Amino acid sequence: MENQNISDIIEAYLKQILAESQEVEIRRSEIANQFNVVPSQINYVIKTRFTIQDGYVVRSKRGGGGYIRIEKVKLLDNLDFIDSLVAAVGDHITRHDGLAVVRSLFEAGTINRREANIMLAAIDKTALNTGDRDLDEQIRAQILISILDHLRYES
Amino acid sequence: MENQNISDIIEAYLKQILAESQEVEIRRSEIANQFNVVPSQINYVIKTRFTIQDGYVVRSKRGGGGYIRIEKVKLLDNLDFIDSLVAAVGDHITRHDGLAVVRSLFEAGTINRREANIMLAAIDKTALNTGDRDLDEQIRAQILISILDHLRYES
DNA sequence: ATAATATTAGTCAACATTAGTCAAAAGAAC
DNA sequence: GTTCTTTTGACTAATGTTGACTAATATTAT
Questions:
Q1: Position A102 in a domain
Q2: Given an 8 Å threshold on Cβ–Cβ distance, is B142 in contact with A129?
Q3: What are the CA-CA distances from residue A119 to residues A129, A147, B51 (Å)?
Q4: In what residue span(s) does the CtsR N-terminal HTH domain sit (chains A, B) (predicted)?
């Protein structure tokens, strides 16, 4: 414990605030200054220690009055299931296999029919049609994973 | 909260009036004066926060007795509403404006919070990140229109 | 009526102020 | 000493602020 690196210390600082208040809002440069590190180290801390798998959702805004907001969310009981689907999606997925992923979610009761239809609309050939099949499959994978990550918690 | 930018404050001021009275009419220079900004900042606030995607219609007149009028759009029925959103999306749309479209659907009651979050996940920067901004905006538009078309006959 | 002037709002580009990305360098763990 | 993690900083991107210039409309003078 006496040999903590600075990232661990910043992590602990933020989590201490989160233990009491559900959400922290910081100005990146202020925290960087406070701990005497470069601003981008705050991004590193967030990227490695405040992921959705850890139960945190991060939003930010640039420009005047910009901020980084970290929110503690309640993770659902479906983590292994979501993890397995994320793994199945990988970094490329065909329409056919994408449909199977959505169907799995529906059959598991994770999403209802309306939600399934929205997902399908987002990944069907109307939506994804760049002319480059490989690119379409890549984007389809990213869309699915982005949605799957949102299904990990209540919002 | 402690360090809001002035544009957010002006936005909140206008929306507070709109919450009670359906329509605001301002004199640009008066508001600029009241908040101690240059007049063109009022245009910036309107352009970034009171778009048709957000559900607002803005009319103005120059010259003596000039004004800017902001009206919260009355949603006729779902179909016209979706048509207007499809038109607003066009063939390119930024994340900012895409978010406004989803928010409008939510506020209109066309979709619920869960559905809104799925839509947002499908068009956010995690999902669309090809490295080519123009392409991202094109795909974002296609995804939104694909979903909007589904909502048309589902609801 | 027409022209000149005054009074509004609109546009656009420069500048300012934030956060994000990425890869190289440094350090720690094994 | 090889690999993984952390630290750093140069560059990028998003958003907000400002002011000079333009455009539209109304009012006043002729």
A1: yes
A2: yes
A3: 16, 8, 27
A4: 5-74
